[in-house]
Amino acid sequence: MIFGVDYYPEQWSPKDWEEDLGIMKDMGLTSVRLAEFAWGLMEPKEGKFDFSLFDAVLEKVGKAGMTAILGTPTATCPPWLFKKHPEISQISKEGIVRVVGTRRQACFSSPAYRKATEKIVTAMAKHFGKHPVVTGWQIDNEPGHEGSDLDYSPLAGINFRKWLKDKYKTLKKLNESWGNVFWGVMYSDWNEIPVPGAHVASDFSPSMIQDYHRFQSDELISYLKLQIDIVRKYSPGRALTTNLYPSPFLPITDMHELFGHMDYVSWDNYPVWGNQKEPYPHPLVSATQQYIRGLKDQNFTVMEQFSGVQGHDTLGYLPPPGQIGLWLTQAVTNGANQIYFFRYRTARFGQEQLCYGILDHGKRLTQKYFELQKTISEIKEYAEDISDQNYPAEVAILHDIENARNYKHQPLSDGLKFSPVPFAQVGYDIEIATWFAGTNVLNVNTHSFPASKDVDWNRYKVISLPLYTVFDDAVVERLSNYVKQGGTLVIGYRSGIKDQNQWIVEEPVPGRFREMAGVESYQFEAVGEDRVSVGMGIFPLKGNKFCEILEPTTASVVAKYTDKNKFYKGKPAITVNSYGKGKVYYVGTSLTPESFVLFYRKVLKEAKVPFGFLGKTIEKHFRIGRKYNYEILMNHSGKPRWAGFTRLKPFEFRITKINK
Amino acid sequence: MIFGVDYYPEQWSPKDWEEDLGIMKDMGLTSVRLAEFAWGLMEPKEGKFDFSLFDAVLEKVGKAGMTAILGTPTATCPPWLFKKHPEISQISKEGIVRVVGTRRQACFSSPAYRKATEKIVTAMAKHFGKHPVVTGWQIDNEPGHEGSDLDYSPLAGINFRKWLKDKYKTLKKLNESWGNVFWGVMYSDWNEIPVPGAHVASDFSPSMIQDYHRFQSDELISYLKLQIDIVRKYSPGRALTTNLYPSPFLPITDMHELFGHMDYVSWDNYPVWGNQKEPYPHPLVSATQQYIRGLKDQNFTVMEQFSGVQGHDTLGYLPPPGQIGLWLTQAVTNGANQIYFFRYRTARFGQEQLCYGILDHGKRLTQKYFELQKTISEIKEYAEDISDQNYPAEVAILHDIENARNYKHQPLSDGLKFSPVPFAQVGYDIEIATWFAGTNVLNVNTHSFPASKDVDWNRYKVISLPLYTVFDDAVVERLSNYVKQGGTLVIGYRSGIKDQNQWIVEEPVPGRFREMAGVESYQFEAVGEDRVSVGMGIFPLKGNKFCEILEPTTASVVAKYTDKNKFYKGKPAITVNSYGKGKVYYVGTSLTPESFVLFYRKVLKEAKVPFGFLGKTIEKHFRIGRKYNYEILMNHSGKPRWAGFTRLKPFEFRITKINK
Amino acid sequence: MIFGVDYYPEQWSPKDWEEDLGIMKDMGLTSVRLAEFAWGLMEPKEGKFDFSLFDAVLEKVGKAGMTAILGTPTATCPPWLFKKHPEISQISKEGIVRVVGTRRQACFSSPAYRKATEKIVTAMAKHFGKHPVVTGWQIDNEPGHEGSDLDYSPLAGINFRKWLKDKYKTLKKLNESWGNVFWGVMYSDWNEIPVPGAHVASDFSPSMIQDYHRFQSDELISYLKLQIDIVRKYSPGRALTTNLYPSPFLPITDMHELFGHMDYVSWDNYPVWGNQKEPYPHPLVSATQQYIRGLKDQNFTVMEQFSGVQGHDTLGYLPPPGQIGLWLTQAVTNGANQIYFFRYRTARFGQEQLCYGILDHGKRLTQKYFELQKTISEIKEYAEDISDQNYPAEVAILHDIENARNYKHQPLSDGLKFSPVPFAQVGYDIEIATWFAGTNVLNVNTHSFPASKDVDWNRYKVISLPLYTVFDDAVVERLSNYVKQGGTLVIGYRSGIKDQNQWIVEEPVPGRFREMAGVESYQFEAVGEDRVSVGMGIFPLKGNKFCEILEPTTASVVAKYTDKNKFYKGKPAITVNSYGKGKVYYVGTSLTPESFVLFYRKVLKEAKVPFGFLGKTIEKHFRIGRKYNYEILMNHSGKPRWAGFTRLKPFEFRITKINK
């Protein structure tokens, strides 16, 4: 278990460095992340490299007995590169040219950017690659963040057409696959194909947009792969990762594919950011951590862990005493075995002068410092004991990048639209998290995986697969086998009806799952944010977003619509079907978080998965260590709360050792 | 009476065609609309035409004893045209270039587009013009839709300057007419004149914008006229139309002028679309149908009639059983004598894969199919009997394209602003519909006409003319004669004060109507959406949007402001004036729908027009057939409702024959 | 004291002129403002000047015994200039090119615009400069209005780089000052530096943006200085001014610096505009007038005084009888000694055809005319008696352009963000006005000054300085001396912590004020619009926007947080510290207007400043005239109200003479 910190020695005086490292060590930190925004510093002029600052810092890091992760500095590039190659800029969907002076500006399709990247990364990897203090590398920084996963520049257009040619070989095939007979858009020359960017009213073809999303993912991954190959060559034995940006799930880039090329996953954990008035609900934070854990099915790193209030030009919520320590414990409990706090000391200048670190702008030790120091010492033994052990679970939730992309451009219901920033549409992500919350609030350890991941599903008693509209036959087949062998599968509305070309199948919902689910649906209403009454036995539930009217073939009814304002009152809303030795639940509507909890109680009970509700703000996990097992109780409320017979103080966590 | 369907054989396999036509016939359909998006299919390369697919389809249509309307395919154009002529794209006010891959992209001022249009339409008209199965043509598709009635491309700018030169001859005249002495914008060269597009704060001159709207209307009409002339030449004896897009009224293009060149009006009837949570109120749907009917004062066609839920990327309301049949009946009752359902079967791909047709993505017959089949058989005799008879009315409401355009750029009150999509401002349209609702809810057959239409007003006992701010002296004169001869005219606030150059007159409101109305107003408040109390005798009304303080000269007071928060409490709000043998009501404020109903009760009673309120959800019409007369009762509610002594089931309609 | 009117003779017939001047004189007006939008009229072709219209008008003005102020006509420029120099257009942050046909389009950095300005202003000044009727000049019109104080055109970029070179001399210095080591944006060539315009997510560096704001201010001032120098040369003895646009404070341009070059300040006073449903609260109007008065610490002019409802395409609130007279009296009372009404008669055409003047579109004398005529005659004696006497005050509030700019790009809290139009962010201005309201509502005459102004602070018993985050050491020093000598200083949250480079200091809040205030703060919450309970003795207050947790060193506690939902309940929120002979209050949170009133009661009482609350709608001022002193009572309510023992009618003002 490593506790470290993100450190920017270039922003302080060399006189500070030794003292800074001492302050870190006193707090219990043993590692630093360095250099991920320092391209301009390390290559002040084209081809002229200067690594002296970080040489000096690494020497002091070594002397302090600490280690370092180095970031490749390609998330911003030096002004001289933009001047020489103005075409390097990304262009947003709205037409904004991303220029020097901000970050994440460069186009992944730009040959000049790739060439310059190759040079700086080669120089850096050669120079630092075998340094004894350097234990690993972070490739780039938050790749794809801030909407840079969708670029509409002319260079992107050129590569898109190449990508299409590579995929479809002939325009005939492309025209057929996209259904271009619709509106008569039959391309007869590859260069006729635009990028599916800004438009006034009707959008571009869904098949085209889906391909554009895939293309952009491939571009980003190939760009990072370029760096990975260089670093692997010159820095043998070092572990490679990159840090995923904080939003819950990642809808354009296939992060599962990306981390196939890396050694572990890391992620930036900000339960509250900017002008948020409240932190994210704790189940959303755990959902994200399990998503991160599941990308490689192994423990992970938090590369940036919240330590102080953060924002670029506005701020919000101030975590009360105890909460930042609780968030640290939550991350460890969900599977983090390396945690770097963001950041050591608050920058006095620049766009992040309001991104507070452990220390403030001055060097006085803060309450945050002492709180994290104390938490580290309290959880250290526990963290060490579980650091190389997997997070155990009998339940899993599956997500799917193809569906994330699909719902980005075709949300289906206003209830599946959510754009906290203009360049994001994370309705899919929120829906997945809402389903996850159902078992999280019942204190059931739950895994999260890409649906396409090669996992032995028989490990799990219950698997949930929401919003699996775009299907992959291989996945359907594997899930079918899982159920046949006794598993419980919970699938959601609108499942199994779009093929990989984005064509909707001829058979009714749930398409490829019809036999398994024993149910069909021919009518639906997209109810947006409205709440629709549903009855499950004596339990009143609330549906929303989408309401399918179910017609069971072999399934039996679990819940019915009971809403007196709906003509489909009395029609089935949730069914269950026996299939092989297992069961398939079909949930024809989305549910509110409270209703998901009620529904999962039933599912878990029947699947013989132990669960227990301890209150809305209490989170309980179970971990297996080398020496002990552990029950971890966390109170996410600012008030004292009972967790069963245990009284927890505000933001208290309690780790109970259980003898094996 | 023809019931037909919009059919896209190109989206299905040739093996489907015969079966499809059989399914249609079984439902009671006898006609199809074809080809309106198939340019890319019919001219895959420039100048290389291929009509084989539609030849084959028409052959089968003929064999099935059915007929066809062909659409000219110019609402999208083939990619090769964009590649050869990149300048062909429209540019939106916000600067978005409308590229290939979406629809309605091409600039009506583009010589390349006109030339290419000429070629494909000529080829198509020559090829299909005399085909026995082809009974008519739809020119283009929804021309002007999706904001394409306002183009700000450089080509539009060039033609705008030509248009201005043609209109004003000299810059002196233009500068005077626009009042360019204001802000000192005296043009001394035609090429100095920009298009009145995007701006940061203050807008362009209202006179200039109004001219730009007129110019754009002329461009669109002349573009369609080009096609009309070709089709008339090569397809003799066929009826020509185009289909107006679904929004209630059409504020830029002068549709009355356009249909002067065509044989009948058609329109696309979607009482609910996209993510709407509720359908439009039924009076709005009838208002639109009467607007359509009035454009040529004759029966009309619904070219796209709602059959299934519709949307591009999100959906909403699901019509309960009975409602789509009711909407069909409502259209027939308002004067439709041809109805084509949109669409036969739901596309599996493309931007409209969520636009559900009669059939879903598969071929299983749906509940919608059976419901429409049943409705057709129920109303067929009625529909046939009235199909060549005019819709009778003693009351009319007038609208005016000049005022629609004026209120688009100068809404006057926040209450007259409504932009359901960014490129539309339909406050004028909603105000007209609200006035229309006043008589519709009282179950009075009501006509709707362009104010400038050459109609014998003496047909009517009551004529309403809301928002007639921009006046035409000839119209004022004709209405004056109408009143003198005994008619009742109801005019609204802000009447008669802007001339054709957009200058406000020197005399006070109601300007040109002062003598007729016997009232003046010197003060007003634009109250936005606020409600202001008004008393009409014992009836409490609610005004909104705009409140004029009236000063009667010869008129008597009908209603007064009674709002204790307004200093003009006690001042007249509505007046009536005897003029010749008739009466002029002047309504100095807008009213809520409920208040309009109360006000019209008074007006109708005094004008001796029979009316009767049967509840908010009940609509009653009276039709005259060749054999019988008919009273049609419709319940637009999902609950059972009394209509007088008749109990109607949810969404029930009842057609009662009355012997002549 | 002069009462005048804004007159546009060019918009009317020469036949009107004499009659118009007669109507004005009858009303009590003795001066006109002319010509400020007439460039196109006076220079119809490049270099061809024609002043005949205004010659004729001035002759009639002289004959009528009236005077004139001439505006230089550069707020719009003639179309020929745009045609010849298309690069002259400003480009907004969003990329909109400001073209001919609107106003405020030209780029202040454009050599062509400056050259053309020089020519027209020289010709005009030569022609009219010594005209006996011309008493003064208005330079340009509302410079910087409508977002034209921020231009992102390429020409602005060129001058920005020159400005930076001039300021920093070397890129090394610039890189250090901006902290460009952050994100590695070290510039190595001046031409690499972009303008900090549109961006997708993360903004540009705060140091860079602050410099851009300073640069734009310098550009505008130097552009106006160019005109000033010409007019001074050719029009000796005439008083020079320009009219500030109506928004409360002016966040980009340093107006204090600007008016250093002019003779007096003028301003456009519209207490309600466009679609506003209510006028601004009266303390906001007085706050603005005192801001205007304070720019030169002398009486001022209202160059455009509200006379009729105003708006470009929508309208709103109608002032009841009495209110426009009250607004006139309020302006005079706050220090206006020249008032020009906007405008004589309402334009029949152009963008301002809905900007109603004293007369409407016709020439009939209106209720507004008679109301203003009556008010002028009522206040004339009072106005004359105080017209050359300063507005007296014992209390002052300070604002600061550097902080206004800072909060524009770094608002800190959602509660400090307010954008009534997209191009404005006036959260700082509203906060200053809210603090001002605290003493205004207590009927304490209050001055307002730029913090950097060279004023003898010892004049004042109490000085407030809110949001003084960016500090100037000289200002801090002077305030420190003021307190030491016995003054009372009230400072606000987040004071004293950003230096002129936008770096945050190492010491905690309140930074440079720590010793004076005797308090420190290490934690804060940005609570946006939420209200947080604060207790000041028995008085319950409400904090909002920002809550600092205070840790007094030498100060004593004035108020504490009492909010049970906040963990910092019980912590100090407001403190007071004795320092030298004076006191420093530190207000760690913003307060609601009501709470500010309660807080200031305490401050004023202790500082021995007399005050008295007479109700929310009552405003009382004290003025010293040459002959008498005056107490002015104003009722800003539409209902009768008691002001102590005086009963005021709706919108009544009462001026009581007090013998000296």
UniProtKB/TrEMBL annotation, chains A, B, C:
Superkingdom of origin: Bacteria
Active site: E142, E304
Domain Glycoside hydrolase family 42 N-terminal: residue ranges: 6-381
Keyword Coiled coil recorded: no
EC code: 3.2.1.23
Residues that bind substrate: R103, N141
Catalytic reaction(s) noted: Hydrolysis of terminal non-reducing beta-D-galactose residues in beta-D-galactosides
SUPFAM superfamilies reported for this sequence: (Trans)glycosidases, Class I glutamine amidotransferase-like
GO molecular function annotation: beta-galactosidase activity; metal ion binding
CC annotations in GO: beta-galactosidase complex
Keywords: Glycosidase, Hydrolase, Metal-binding, Zinc
One Pfam family here: Glyco_hydro_42
PANTHER family noted in UniProt: BETA-GALACTOSIDASE GANA, BETA-GALACTOSIDASE YESZ
Family: Belongs to the glycosyl hydrolase 42 family.
Identification of the protein by name: Beta-galactosidase
